[in-house]
Amino acid sequence: MAERFEIDLRVIIMAVALVVIAAMGSAYITFLVFSRSANVASGQGPVEKEAVGPIHEIGEFTVNLMVPPGFAPRFVRTGVAVEVSDKKALTELSEREAQVRDAVIGVLRSKTHDEINGTAGMETLRQEIAASISALLRSGNVVNVFFTDLVVQ
Hints:
With 153 residues, the chain is α+β, with helices and mostly antiparallel strands.
């Protein structure tokens, strides 16, 4: 006569659990291998963070933006700090504080709301402020411009 083949439910659960654990482990190892080989292939290796140079806080600015005639006035309120290439430039920025503030105000007043709106506009504003301040410096230059506060209305 035919014999019945009985399988214990605990054995089935254990087998399924082992298969799931093995699949997750192999997926994780595959991820590690391919992520390392992608960094090596692109020549990146470990990512090193850049050191930040001396930073000078220029201060807060509240400036009217340029608007066409007949339109409501718009303004920008921002805090600006600049990173310079060396300590000599940092000393010179402190000595020329009035000229530096005037240069920043000049750049800000020449902008419209649409020109500084968005990421690309802010990046252009950073570059223009850096160029106008660097033109004032006899030693060193501005490496980066940071907005510590920014409201455009």
